[in-house]
Amino acid sequence: MESSQIEFTRYINKVKETRAKITPQRMEILNIFLNNKNEHFTAEDIIKRLNTKTGQATVYRTLELFCQASILKKVNFKNEEFLRYDLLDLKNKHFHHHLVCNKCGKVMEINDDFLDHIEFKVLQDYDFITLNHELILNGICKDCQKDTENEK
User: Could you tell me the CA-to-CA distances from 21 to 25, 77, 106 in Å, in that order?
Assistant: First the structure.
């Protein structure tokens, strides 16, 4: 298991590759993502979690920078009117997949990669190299299924 300091340094180095400065605000925002890896934050969520008086514009610019540095990915679930940001795992080849509950909106991550065989078939049949993929499965989570059963 990788130590949190080594992991933090790996992400900071990815940001440095864009020639961006590493500010205290950027480090704090990165730590929010690293300490909550299964969360899918909106910009507003980040603003609420900050301990410093970091301005809204700084948060939005930082999130965009992190996307450009390939440490965050913008995601949109259930056609929400706002973007969420998801931390990319620098050690994995592909972005992880998601389960989204249509009833409560809960988002769960699937870390297994189910699509390798499809990528191989696409390469064989279409001579197309897949660089990345993502899968979002919509349905009803276990908690909402129980709530529906209790309503009967």
Answer: 11, 31, 35
User: Are 14 and 65 within 8 A, CB to CB?
Assistant: no
Where in the sequence is the domain holding 105, given as residue range(s)?
Answer: 93-152
Backbone CA torsion sign across 93, 106, 39, 17: positive
State the CB neighbour count (10 A cutoff) for residue 107. Answer: 19
CATH of the domain at 7: 1.10.10.10
Neighbouring C-beta atoms of residue 102, cutoff 10 Å: 12
Structure tokens, 66:
């992190």
How would you list the strands of the sheet with 136-139, edge to edge? 107-110, 97-101, 136-139
Residues 59 and 131: their CA atoms lie apart, in Å, by: 29
Q: What is residue 149's three-state secondary structure?
A: helix
Residues 13 and 66 placed together within one structural domain of the fold: yes
| pLDDT single digits (tens) 56-108 | 999 999 999 999 999 998 988 776 778 899 998 888 766 677 888 888 888 88
Cα Rg for the chain, rounded, in angstroms?
A: 18
